[in-house]
Fold this sequence. Notes:
It is a single chain. With 196 residues, this protein is mainly α. 73% of the residues lie in helices and 0% in strands. The chain has ten helices and no strands. α7 (129-141) crosses α9. The longest helix has 21 residues, at 59-79. The radius of gyration is 19 Å and the shape is elongated. The N and C termini lie far apart (48 Å).
Amino acid sequence: AVESDPKNAEAFRHLGDLLRKKGDPNGAIDAYSKCSELSPDGTGPHNNLGLALLDVGRTAEAAVAFKTAATYFDRRAKADPGNITNRKNLQASLTNLAKSHLALGNQQAHEEACQSLVALFPPAAERQVADWGHLGQALYRAGHYPDAQAALEKTIELRGDNGPSLQGGPRWWYLALAHAKLGEKDQSLEIYEALS
């Protein structure tokens, strides 16, 4: 498609996705960059570009791409608050931004990205059970393990879970992982053993 229509930004986005899946992150970076060039309104695949940059160890450049994606999806989410896709893309961009800052050792920027992630959810007093679970998983993926652990424990408390079970879904797995990341091996193993 890019050969027959070299001005088609969407074709370059799809080419980037295909190249990344085939294990060619450098080719994907080129395709995503071309897509961004052809998308003057800022709709380029910045989150995907950031992931490809991470694949080749270009973490600082990835952080810039994730920040661009987060800014773009924040604008879209505010313009159309009912559009769940914009919100999910914003959440993914902020999660990736937080992870990249953590990898770079930039604690302040990591904390800011995590706070932006938390701000996507209702205030604590208004959060529903599912909100706490989704927030805990997002914070875990962002590398903010203490708050991830607290949010996951809150959803477990609100659900009235009597202990780890396979029916407990990912909240128990993420809680075990958070315990492990925090060096709490006994608690982590206890959950894993109950789930096995």
